[in-house]
Amino acid sequence: MPLEPPASVWDFPPVAVAGPSDVVAAGADLEPGTVLAAYRRGLFPMPDSHGPLLWWSPVDRGVIEIDGYAPSRSLRRARQRFEIRVNTAFDQVIRACADPSRPGSWIDADIIASYTRLHRMGWVHSVEAWDGDELAGGLYGVAIGGLFAGESMFHHKTDGSKAAVAGLVELLDDKYAADRVLDIQWVTDHLATLGAVAIPREQYIRRVERALTLPLPDAFS
Questions:
Q1: Of 20, 84, 105, 218, whose CB has the highest number of CB atoms within 10 Å?
Q2: Across all residues in the chain, what is the average pLDDT?
Q3: Biggest alpha carbon distance in the chain?
């Protein structure tokens, strides 16, 4: 089971009464207790290279619904091409996601250090797509009870990241699937092709409150 860290010395504002901006707070730190407290409130950190650390809770939150998930034919084909593994190459996955040559890269050294520490404590996990002995793609995210908050994904081979997402859905699809939350932050055109939808922030917060009462999926416990 994950190791619970000391409580954060910071207190976040209530997300339920946040304004129309996706940014809810600024400052604080990336200590394990702070990061976990944020996710439990529906927030996630993303650094600003020109200012303090920002804490986000999108007004329109991207999720992938686990219960009744129906992958497209192309996604099913992509999934069949790769073997899915969990936590066998976390360092490779997070560093591939942080590749500064990628458009919109935001994962800096502080984020890598924080999430690697949380991985060692049992809270952050990598889901990997393997083609034989080659890492084809993957993602990493935070698992707290029935919440899996996806942070970033990458691919080295075509459809590697797609397969990792499909594999993650399989790992979350158990008897609690209707109440589990797979958070993907925002819906992009690419994520929409994988089944992502947007829900209002208020609904997301209510669903997270319920999800936090659930047990971890077997793959992450």
A1: 84
A2: 96
A3: 49
